[in-house]
Design a protein that fits this description.
Radius of gyration: 17 Å
Largest sheet: 6 strands, mixed
Distance between the termini: 11 Å
Number of strands: 10
Number of helices: 9
Shape: globular
Strand order of the largest sheet: 7-2-8-1-10-9
Strand content: 15-25%
């Protein structure tokens, strides 16, 4: 059953050895929210964490489920040679792939490495616990497919599964909030982030699915498909959107929120 779910950004500068003191000060709200989320997650005692990452192995028309027995990744691309390993929950990965095939949704098992979109949230959440991990990517198909994928995930780890599961949707909102932002500036970026926060707070999934594609494209986000999978997994389950922090000092919208 789903005992915890959340949306988390993946700022590399939040990792000691990558970020500097001035970076930690700039994202102190996010770091504080990470600490709170870590404690709250520990209280739910999850056996498995499902992490959905926008930087995992990506296929345009199919969902990839990491089937490596040991999920291994590092932060070499950001400088320090910091490596991490987690045990894969092969049972859930296999069952999810099978359930997708039975529901005519394109998904398959694929051995891969843990990317930074998965590693950064896991670094902050699993300092004191060692649950198994399920590592998922999204595709470039529309939001409807992602919501449906989440619904199938829920059927696999639903209330009758007997396993305590947390789901984390990793992703950043707009990358264009300020003039020196990583993807440049767009005046629509703040509007986009504000709309997402409003719709999530109102549990208005339909409005998220039907957002203007031009505004979404202008925002240069990397988290919406992760979030749509999470929302699909929570379909039919009571939840409350609890905003822990939102900030964008570097021009990237960092949203940290708990839903279950």
């Amino acid at each position: 059953m789903i005992v915890f779910s959340a949306i988390m950004p993946h700022p590399p500068e939040s990792i000691p050895g990558i970020g500097r003191m001035e970076d930690f000060k700039a994202i102190r709200k996010t770091l504080g929210a990470f600490d709170r989320m870590m404690l709250e997650l520990e209280q739910t005692d999850p056996e498995t964490i499902v992490i959905i990452s926008p930087h995992a192995y990506l296929e345009q028309y199919s969902f990839a489920i990491n089937s490596a027995e040991q999920l291994v990744g590092n932060f070499v691309d950001f400088g320090p040679d910091l490596a991490y390993a987690y045990e894969n929950d092969i049972e859930i990965a296999d069952r999810l792939a099978f359930a997708c095939s039975m529901n005519d949704l394109p998904a398959h098992l694929h051995q891969g490495f843990l990317d930074h979109g998965a590693l950064i949230p896991l670094y902050h959440l699993t300092k004191n616990i060692k649950p198994k991990i399920v590592h998922l990517s999204f595709s470039l198909m529309n939001y409807d497919f992602h919501y449906r994928y989440g619904e199938i995930l829920r059927s696999v780890i639903g209330d009758n599964s007997g396993k305590r599961v947390a789901i984390i949707a990793s992703g950043d909102l707009s990358h264009r909030l300020i003039p020196n932002a990583p993807a440049g500036f767009s005046p629509k970026a703040k509007e986009f982030d504000s709309m997402i926060l409003h719709y999530l707070g109102a549990n208005d999934v339909a409005s998220i699915m039907n957002m203007d594609e031009q505004i979404t494209a202008e925002a240069a986000e990397c988290g919406m498909r992760s979030i749509m999978i999470l929302l699909g997994a929570l379909s039919g389950k009571p939840y409350e959107f609890k905003l822990l922090s939102y900030e964008g000092p570097s021009g990237v919208g960092y949203l940290t929120a708990r839903l279950v």
